[in-house]
Amino acid sequence: MKHRIAGLAAALLSALLLAQDTPKVPMVTEASEQRRLGAAHFEIDEDSKTLIVTTDAETNATIMRIVAQLDQPVPQALINVLFLEVTYGDDLDIGTEFKYSATKEDGDTHDLTSLFGLEGLAEGGAVALIDGDLTATLKALATKTKLEVLSRPSIMARNNEESTITIGAEVPFIKNSQITDAGGVLNTVEYEDVGIILKVTPHISADGMVEMEVAPEISTIAEETVQISESVNAPTFAKRSAETRVVVPNGKTVVIGGLMEDQEREEIRKVPLLGSIPLVGRLFRRTIKEKTKTELLVFLTPHVVTGATAPGLVESQKKAAGIDQSVDAAMLQRYLGGAIPVTGPGVGHLRPVKKTAEK
Question: 111 is in which domain, residue-wise?
Answer without folding.
Answer: 92-138
